[in-house]
Every structure is written in C-alpha cells, then in structure tokens.
Amino acid sequence: MSELLFTAPRAPTLPIADDSRHFPVHRIYCVGRNYAEHVREMGGTPERQRPVFFAKPADAVVGDGAVIPYPLATSDLHHEVELVIALGDGGAQLSAAQARQCIAGYAVGVDLTRRDLQHQAKDAGQPWDTAKGFDRSAPIGALRLASQWTPQAQRIALSVNDKLCQEGTLDLMILDVAQILVELSELFELQPGDLIFTGTPHGVGPLQPGDQVSAQIDGLPPLRFAIAA
Ligand code: MN
User: Fold this and answer.
1) Separation of 38 CA from ligand 1 center, angstroms?
2) For an engineered disulfide with 196, which of 30, 85, 155, 159 has Cβ 3.0 to 4.6 Å away?
3) What domain range is 29 assigned to?
4) pLDDT tens digits for 125-175?
5) In a domain, 181, yes or no
6) What's the CA-to-centroid distance between 44 and ligand 1, angstroms?
7) Residue 195 sits in a domain of what CATH number?
8) Is residue 128 part of a domain?
9) For residues 141 and 124, what is the distance between their CA atoms, to the nearest angstrom?
10) Residues whose CB is under 5 A from ligand 1 (ion)?
11) In the chain, how long is the greatest CA-to-CA distance?
12) CA 173, CA 176: separation in Å to the nearest integer?
C-alpha cells in the first residue's frame, strides 16, 4: 500500500463586502422554529414549541454564484432563506450586551434541507443531522460588517426562477439576534468564526434540478445560486 498523505483541510471562508479580508468559518449553528408562520406551515404550534438549535459542518458553506449538485439521499430538497450572524468574538453564558459585541457581520444564507429525511427523523424521534448537515447545505452570500448594518425590520425574501416564494421581515423573529446568542452561549462556548443561521420565514418549498435561486435581505449583499440541471 502506498504511503497515505494527511493534508490539512482547506478552511472555508466568506468574502466581506467592500473589504479585502475574508472571514474564516469555524462552526455553523442554526435556529429552527424562529418565525411563527413557518412553525405553523410545518404543522407546529409556536405557543408550545420553543426554537430549536442544530448544526451543520463548517465545510457545508458554499458562496454566491455556486452551482450545487442535487444532494444525495433526498427527493424533497427545500429552501429556507435566513439571516446569518458572523461572530468576531465569543464566550459562554453571554449577556445580551456582550452578545451584541461579538457580532462581526451579517449575511444572507439558505438553510438547505432534505425535508423528507427531516420528516422521517421527527416521526422516529431521531436527530436532524442527516436532514440538515449535508454537503453544500449552507449557501451564504458576502458578509456586511456589523458597523455598516443592523437588523431591524428589513425585508427578507427568496425567489426561485424569478417567482417569489418566501417573504417576511426580520422583526418577525421569535428570538432576536442577541437572544439567540444568549441562549446558544448557554449550550456552547461561542468562538470567533462561528456562523449562526437565525431561522426562516414561511413559504419554504422544494427545489428542482436547474432551479435558479435568489435570496435577499434589504441592505445585505444578495445571494444567488443554482441547482445543477
Ligand atoms: Mn432553517
């Protein structure tokens, strides 16, 4: 047998708008069930079900303009447009004020989801990893630095082949960005380079081979990607 070579994996990065630096991605955390209308469209009850945390591998990140092969092991790939927080600092058991100080920037992301596997996992009481944490499941646009943009009630939207599918405003989030970081930092010591997907508004739906996806949040660089034909 020939000698095995152990090469360090290339660290995923994200470009920063109007800045020559690149943001090194450390980990990806996600919040589920953070918009009431989306909880209802998934058959849930927002008054009874708390937002839920899960993760994706850091190398699930793909950048603006990517062509993504239709994923393995699914016939029901779904889009979920989300605000993504990028951390420049971290810590455990953060206060809301400390949490805000950790934020380096924001981006538009899509939490790609194998919905058929998620339904199977929910029915079986199993974790969501295979439904959420698969290869290329985290397309994310360029970051806008937090010094240039603050989440308020901006419009968040996603179109497939120029047809509007998802539309909401960021003030509809159940946990706001500081509350998300406070709760997450009770579970994990947050680190510089961590990204956090903050949940999706209603209107999630399937993607097909050949689809062109366009995701926007007012004031952030847009995200476009395609599913390979
Ligand atoms: Mn999501």
Assistant:
1) 10
2) 85
3) 21-227
4) 999 999 999 999 999 999 999 999 999 999 999 999 999 999 999 999 999
5) yes
6) 14
7) 3.90.850.10
8) yes
9) 34
10) 80, 111, 200
11) 60
12) 6
